[in-house]
């Protein structure tokens, strides 16, 4: 039997070019938006199986899409700050990650999901370890996610483990949780995966018909070391070893040359831009305007909570829209509607998700966020899209729907036992800092 829900709100941004500042109602059938109609819902003749959610004091926007992160790193939030990437990873993060347990991944992912849902993110991307536990947390939470087992190729054992774990993870979780989970492969980076291992992973992605996500050209040091060791930039190397023969989502791409960008455009490499993490780790500022000028598909990401240090996509949207103006000394750089589009539908496209995700249009999944229309950030209301991109924040999120399911209701997570999550993550923190 078809489940039918009507969601009526006081206004909506359907996508970056369609803004409605009057009452509108969405008809949602089996998790998909089947109609969007301006005006109040007339309830005469409603069948008993139709649920009507009336939220006149809410503004609907598409759920935000976080295109890069390491969810369970919420456990390491604040455990290593004010360090450059390589020192941060080698001296602080990797030793702590050695102490992670399956349980820790499950509860750390729950903490991330809790934080992301409350800040309006409905889809996130993850590359981490012991990922069955992350997938379980996603399935139970109702969230949508693009998950990968993060793999490194330091020796024969890590290489073969990476391949078999990735293969099993695809088999067990791809398109599971009512289709909300998408699995990709996750080679960590060219400095942790040798060239022939990247070739092997690309072949596996081709065989399994799944995309790849990878960190590329994050720091100047990474690029210099790659030039020293392989006489190629990380982007040229990835292309050379066949990685771009399959769909790739490349995270960071901060230090890329014009030739790199040409390769990326020619091979349709998607990009996850993580402005906050890149600033905090002192990595630099990615050439976003050059990427967009080449029609690259760029989404926004937070990266992990240990390098950001939160998972708030409103902050990334605002930062993307302001950072590049300052960097280019050009107030027209990255206008609000482009930042909004990168946080929504372009993000979904960057992650190779179904067409329509990231927009509130008929045929799309009902991944929807309702903002408090009475928030000071939405007054006096000159330009709704500007208010959302430049003024709103996580505090304005009141309701969240994923695939039509109400997962945050009046500011309260419906699917997360928040007291238990707080208890478990504190227990883990005490364990690793003992
Ligand atoms: C092999 S699982 C993923 C691995 O990535 C590490 N990580 C977290 N943030 C970053 C980043 O910005 N660049 C490179 N690697 C990063 C994380 O700690 C895991 O070990
Ligand atoms: Zn990362």
Descriptive notes:
The chain is of the alpha/beta class and 434 residues long. Helix content is 38%, strand content 23%. The chain has 15 helices and 18 strands. A hairpin with a 2-residue loop joins strand 16 and strand 17. The protein is globular. 52% of the residues are buried. Keywords: Hydrolase, Metal-binding, Zinc. Residues 59-405 form the Amidohydrolase-related domain.
Entry keywords:
5-stranded parallel β-sheet, binds ligand LTUXU72L, 434 residues, 38% helix, 9-stranded mixed β-sheet, alpha/beta, binds zinc ion
Number of helices: 15
Bound molecules: the ligand CSC[C@H]1O[C@@H](n2cnc3c(O)ncnc32)[C@H](O)[C@@H]1O, zinc ion
Specify the overall morphology: globular
**CA-atom Rg in angstroms:** 21 Å
Largest sheet: 9 strands, mixed
Report the portion of residues in β strands. 15-25%
Number of strands: 18
Low-confidence stretches: none
Chart the SSEs and their pairings.
Elements: E1 4-15, E2 18-20, E3 24-29, E4 32-38, E5 50-62, E6 64-66, H1 85-97, H2 102-118, E7 121-128, H3 131-141, E8 144-151, H4 156-173, E9 181-183, E10 186-187, H5 195-208, E11 212-216, H6 220-230, H7 234-240, E12 248-252, H8 258-266, E13 270-273, H9 275-280, H10 288-293, E14 298-300, H11 313-328, H12 336-343, H13 345-350, E15 368-372, H14 384-391, E16 397-402, E17 405-409, E18 412-413, H15 418-432
Parallel strand pairs: 1-5, 6-7, 7-8, 8-9, 8-10, 11-12, 12-13, 13-14
Antiparallel strand pairs: 1-2, 1-3, 3-4, 5-15, 15-16, 16-17, 17-18
């Amino acid at each position: 039997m078809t489940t039918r829900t009507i969601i009526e709100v006081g206004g909506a941004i359907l996508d970056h070019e369609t803004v409605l500042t009057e009452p509108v109602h969405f008809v949602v059938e089996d998790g998909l938006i089947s109609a969007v109609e301006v005006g109040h819902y007339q309830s005469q003749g409603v069948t008993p199986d139709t649920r009507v959610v009336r939220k006149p004091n809410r503004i609907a926007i598409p759920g935000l899409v976080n295109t890069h992160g390491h969810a369970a790193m919420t456990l390491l939030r604040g455990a290593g700050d004010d360090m450059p990437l390589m020192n941060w990873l080698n001296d602080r993060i990797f030793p702590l990650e050695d102490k992670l347990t399956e349980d820790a991944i499950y509860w750390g992912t729950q903490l991330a999901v809790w934080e992301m849902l409350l800040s309006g993110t409905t889809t996130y991307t993850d590359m981490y370890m012991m990922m069955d536990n992350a997938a379980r947390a996603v399935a139970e939470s109702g969230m949508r996610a693009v998950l990968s087992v993060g793999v490194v190729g330091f020796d024969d054992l890590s290489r073969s483990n990476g391949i078999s774990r990735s293969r099993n993870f695809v088999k067990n979780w791809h398109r599971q949780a009512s289709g909300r989970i998408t699995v990709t492969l996750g080679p960590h980076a060219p400095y942790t995966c040798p060239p022939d291992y990247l070739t092997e992973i690309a072949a596996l992605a081709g065989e399994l018909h799944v995309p790849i996500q990878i960190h590329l050209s994050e720091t100047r040091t990474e690029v210099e070391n790659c030039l020293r060791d392989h006489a190629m930039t990380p982007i040229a190397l990835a292309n050379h070893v066949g990685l771009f023969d399959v769909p790739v989502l490349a995270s960071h791409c901060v230090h890329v040359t014009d030739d790199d960008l040409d390769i990326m455009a020619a091979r349709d490499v998607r990009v996850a831009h993580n402005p906050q993490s890149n600033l905090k780790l002192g990595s630099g500022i990615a050439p976003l305007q050059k990427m967009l000028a080449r029609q690259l598909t760029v989404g926004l990401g937070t990266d992990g909570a240990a390098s950001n240090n939160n998972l708030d996509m409103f902050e990334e949207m605002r930062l993307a829209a302001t950072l590049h103006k300052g960097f280019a000394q050009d107030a027209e750089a990255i206008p609000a509607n482009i930042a909004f589009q990168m946080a929504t539908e372009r993000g979904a496209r960057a992650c190779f998700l179904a067409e329509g995700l990231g927009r509130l249009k008929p045929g799309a999944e009902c991944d929807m966020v309702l903002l408090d229309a009475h928030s000071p950030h939405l007054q006096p209301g000159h330009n709704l899209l500007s208010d959302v991109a430049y003024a709103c924040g996580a505090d304005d999120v009141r309701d969240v729907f994923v695939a039509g399911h109400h997962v945050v209701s009046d500011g309260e997570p419906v699917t997360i036992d928040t007291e238990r999550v707080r208890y478990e993550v504190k227990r883990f923190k005490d364990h690793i800092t003992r």
